[in-house]
Amino acid sequence: MNFVKYFKFFNILSTLLFLGAIFSLIFFGLKFSIDFTGGSILEIDFEQRPENQIIQEKLKTLDLGEIVIQPIGEKGVILRLPEINEETHQKIISQLNEISKVEEKRFESVGPTVGKELREKTISLITVSLFFLLCYITIAFSKISRPISGWQYGLISIITLSFDVVISLGIFSLLGKLYNAQFNIPIVTALLTILGYTINDKVIVFDRIRENILKEHKRTFEDLVNLSLNQTLTRSLSTGTCTLLVLLFIFLFGGETLKYFALILIAGIVIGTYSSLFLATPLLVIWLKYRERH
Amino acid sequence: MLKKTHFFIFFIFLLAFLAGNLVDPEYLNRAIDTINNWELKIENWKLTIPHFPEKLFRLGLDLQGGAHLIYQADLSEIKEGDKGEVMEGLRDVIERRINLFGVREPVVQVQGNQLIVELSGTVDPAQAVKEIGKTPFLEFKEQKENFQEILENNKKVQETGEGSFEDPFQSTPLSGRYLKSATLAFDQLTSKPLVSLEFNEEGAKLFEELTEKNIGKTLAIYIDGIPISIPKVQEKISGGKAQISGQFTIDQAKDLSRNLSAGALPAPITLISQETVGPILGKISLEKSFRAGVFGFIAILFFMIIFYRLPGLLASLSLLIYIVFNLALYKLFPVTLTLAGIAGFLLSMGMAVDANILIFTRMREEAKEGKNFLICLEEGFRRAWPSIRDGNFSTILVGLILFYLGMSFVKGFAFTLVLGNLIGLFTAVFVTNKLLGIFSNLFQKWNFLW
Fold first, then answer.
1. Residue A154 shares a structural domain with residue A245
2. Would you call A71 an interface residue with chain B, using a CB distance cutoff of 8 Å?
3. How many CB atoms lie within 10 A of CB A293?
4. To probe the interface with A, which of B294, B401, B403 has the most A CB atoms within 10 Å?
5. Who contacts B24 (Cβ-Cβ below 8 Å, separation ≥6)?
6. Which domain holds residue B69?
7. What is the ipTM of this complex?
8. Which residue range(s) make up the domain with A84?
9. Which of the listed residues A4, A68, A128, B122 has the most CB atoms within 10 Å of its CB?
């Protein structure tokens, strides 16, 4: 199949996806969990769950500020509150006990400084990872200098990796808007996993191009890219399917805590597979054409 | 040549068998019991085969329930050089405190000015937070230079209700850090209850210096930031003994001496972050992720067999060995398994078969050119290797960065990721290859098998 013919189409698609993600991030934003903003979260099971209104009413006397109440499962409720101390925590439990017997399942309270630290660390982690990957790919591909040199493969990998992360974040912000999905620590882990997984994909596509360049001298670069794409397509789809199968089961059986974790991984891996094949390679060709013209 | 391969495969299976039993020794031990109970013909002689050792997975907070607490220590009163020592002191006190109410394997770590406390499973987290909160912060303070002035000022503030109070005392190096023991005692004259303190050697010296410096002045004993007792120093006191004679009831004095004995804090701490998970929620998460893993494996098995036939089946066998090796190593190291860690591991199953898929697709390409099976196997492996190497190494690179720079929750995940990649390289590339080699006669006879 001649993919190079459709590069224009893929470029438009990639641009649209990217703009869509940016749009979603700007207008919907991310719903940061208390891990990042500070605050408290309390998950309890009632013997007989009351209406949200009754819970609000009951806790009014404690003067806690804004409380978000979200029913979960058959008897459970998740309360999101501003940061509270242990004393207030116990008062809340005893107040709620007056409505119906409650069992505490989970309580988290994070101070604002802890949240800020985490935000800064997450950003620096992703940046440092991208930088080292750039170095590694530059070195791994330094053997070939024609028609494109090692550091250019590296740079294009980083651009496409950033594309994967941005699109995944965009999809997540949409989930946050629609289903109130919270951007928390497991989601950060998921983003880092997407980084580790899809770099693998990109390296394998580039590797095929590298091999074909060393083997076939007569063909044009565009031809070689097309050949490499055709050769890696089966593998990319097979591996993608295997990984997605596992993630699908985590999504189906993983319960509330792992649902969005699995979902963003699924999104990231689909996007990563797409961008390795149809964003990274067109970029290589575009870069080469640009250089030939100047 | 063939013999060597057979021996290698036998060795791998033996290792996998041992690893499998490390992961779940129940079945083997039951079998051993049955054998041990056999009635043998020889009299007075019974088999006593020892059991396979049982070792538990180390589960994280989110899988077995427990509490994760972060305390911030206020070190503003402490000299730069002493900070490390004070934090160590804090850790010891808190650890002793937790041991008192019997938590299994508490983890207390110092991180900068923060103290991270992890309590697992059995305890009621609220109770734990309360108990730790009871740890008293004891300090001895001396008069400030302008002591009288501040007192008069405070009096004025009280009368007029304007301005603010100022503490007339300032901190001294003597704190709960140097406390050896505290006991309930009674005043010999008034028979009122009091708390008698005993310092360690260093504390005794500090106390001696402090009393010598302040003869004729008052010293204040603060507990949790409140002056409990403000005695006047009559003379230099050596020997390292002091008394707190506040207006205690017997019960109050008893409580205080018990709390002080268990350890007094060398610096005040505040709880800035806490996370507690009930044991039931943890158990449900564990069961759910286990089920997800089983179904995920079966799905991969089907996929591989449908698309890659017998090689696919053999790859699934290596995947099973991969899973068993990983789980066994989690127990051996031991790695603390969290929900994110398990999810990362399940994901790594997908990545582990990637190497096989790369090799198999290459083999098919070679086969199209009409080469025979053994050559295809060799060529397929040789050509797929650079991709496998670069792909895995870049993932390992990300893993290592996460491990060295990451927050504690990312560390466990990064460790499982790197470990999984390394083991995956071994099982998916090496073991599958040897397995294919063993069956090469079959493959050569019946092409439809691959």
1. yes
2. no
3. 6
4. B401
5. none
6. 63-275
7. 0.81
8. 39-110
9. A4
